[in-house]
Design goal:
Blueprint lengths: L4 E5 L3 H12 L15 E3 L5 E5 L5 H6 L5 E5 H7 L4 E6 L5 E8 L4 H6 L4 E5 L2 H11 L3 E5 L6 H4 L5 E6 L3 H5 L2 E10 L1 E6 H6 L1 H18 L1
Parallel strand pairs: 1-3, 1-4, 7-8, 7-9
Antiparallel strand pairs: 2-3, 4-11, 5-11, 6-9, 6-10
Helix pairs in contact: 1-9
The chain binds adenosine-5'-triphosphate (ATP) and 1-O-pyrophosphono-5-O-phosphono-alpha-D-ribofuranose.
Amino acid sequence: MSQPLTMALSKGRIFEETLPLLKAAGIVVTEDPETSRKLILPTNDPVVRVIIVRASDVPTYVQYGAADFGVAGKDVLLEHGGEGLYQPVDLNIARCRMSVAVSAGFDYASAVRQGARLRVATKFTQTARQHFAAKGVHVDLIKLYGSMELAPLVGLSDAIVDVVSTGSTLRANNLVEVEKIMEISSRLVVNQAAMKMKRERLQPILAAFERAAAAIA
Ligand code: ATP
Ligand code: PRP
């Protein structure tokens, strides 16, 4: 009998952008997570199921083997640390960049030049800590879980570290992108034990994902 496979995905852009990759592997998710309240979704393949989790929880489910594989943003993987995960394929989906942004009136360059201690609000504390340490800038990090753009507007922080795509959220809140930290895209992540024990079943899916991702690049 075929070994069952569980894939972890988050609702929204990762789910939407992974569907064509799944299709390339012959897998069709037969329920829509936006309309269903179910957290375990069937597919056309009786041995493959999809679990719906928070984007930042995908690496944890895969690390502990509750899911065999999944899709997670590089931003999320850097915060998680990547322990217990293979990251064999950059899927080139959910592309954006990690950036530093400040209020339009804030002189970031001179604050950095003068060695001022910056207050930085972010969900991405590991990435932010590493970025500012590498620049030799002293920061007080304030951990947030969302709506980072608000922090400089109400005096919670001098700067934010967040993902930017079109820049429209920054513009709508009178913020300016002052530094790009890195390009972000989503990766296929595979549980290290599953990679060995379920290689036969996983390999064709990984190969199909890789081919489909190369076509996106
Ligand atoms: P959580 O629910 O765990 O807080 P989230 O709400 O940030 O996560 P999504 O908005 O679905 O989750 O984002 C998933 C991934 O998509 C992020 O980890 C990031 O890599 C990427 N991403 C985030 N915002 C954008 C954007 N505006 N454009 C393109 N990709 C993005
Ligand atoms: C993300 C992120 C920014 C925004 C950036 O939020 O936290 O707020 O996207 O995208 P932009 O540069 O194109 O404005 P969220 O996941 O809520 O984004 P969404 O508005 O695309 O749903």
